[in-house]
Amino acid sequence: MTHRFPIKEIALQAGLSTATVDRVMNGRAHVSPQTRRRVEDAIAELEQQEGQLAARGRRLFFDVVMEAPNRFSREVRLACGSVLTDLHPIAIRPRFTFTETMSAAECSAILQRIAKRGSQGICLKVRDTEEVRHMIAGLADRRIPVVTVFTDLPASRRLAYVGLDNRSAGKTAAYLMHKLLPANGTVLTTLSQHTFQGEEERYEGFRQELDRLRPECRLVDASGGGGLNPETRREVAEKLGSSPPISGVYSMGGGNRAILQALSEVGQIPGVYVAHDLDKDNLELLRQEQLTLVLHHDLQSDMHTAFRHLLAYHGIGTSPSGETSDVQVVTPLNIPSRFNEPA
Length: 343
Description:
By secondary structure, the chain is α/β, with parallel strands linked by helices. 46% of the residues lie in helices and 17% in strands. This is Lac repressor.
């Protein structure tokens, strides 16, 4: 068993004699499994304390860069604020760069500015392009780690990905659609952009699983609105003009008010509507039962995990295991209590 702490220190932490700890550390006989476990736990506790001591008094700047609708960015900002108290005594100073639309060139310019002024880490939600992957490689060379959040860039040199298993989320949506949709239905699918790798994985998981479960179902894709209401409404209205009546909707990228408005304008009310994320708009639509259900994941937990990856890179704590978030199926009847409106 390897370690970097004195035997006496481990013995004090474990509440054992130095002779007993020495026997455990050197793999000698006559040591019970319980004693070995106590020594292993003591070393883990000392490592945690060491990380806390190393963090005390340190100030780290983490940049959060995202291309997303304002309604989603707002929720991420709130999640980050909640996380900071959980990570005390580490002084984390988040800096936010949020835009609703961002080209690859604009993203590269933002990352270049961050590299120039310095950063201890970046949480990044952007489209998967070669130019951005190249920028991440340059940041890695400068020892500025990048954690991708909510949508991944798997071919890049990012440190980790944090967020949903998006393919599994898409399959979950397909299963629920299969159970709720009437026979021979037509399903409208919407992504903000196909170049968001996470949404693309949701779409592929949904398409493949629904084809397996309900091969007679037709999909009508009205993607490309960026999750923004005016653009999304225009994309959906254009597709509705030439499609059969819509029985179900799977919205992967938001803009649900716009989608519902476009459907209403042609006199259609889908029987099943599956959306993602409990932002302010979706909560209201869910309470009004205009959405059937929302696939949700805890943004606060995601940002906590992302920050822990960045801290571990700098020798503070350990990297979390199990990076992907669990998907929660939320209906109007089981909205999590922290989203409840005050009485």
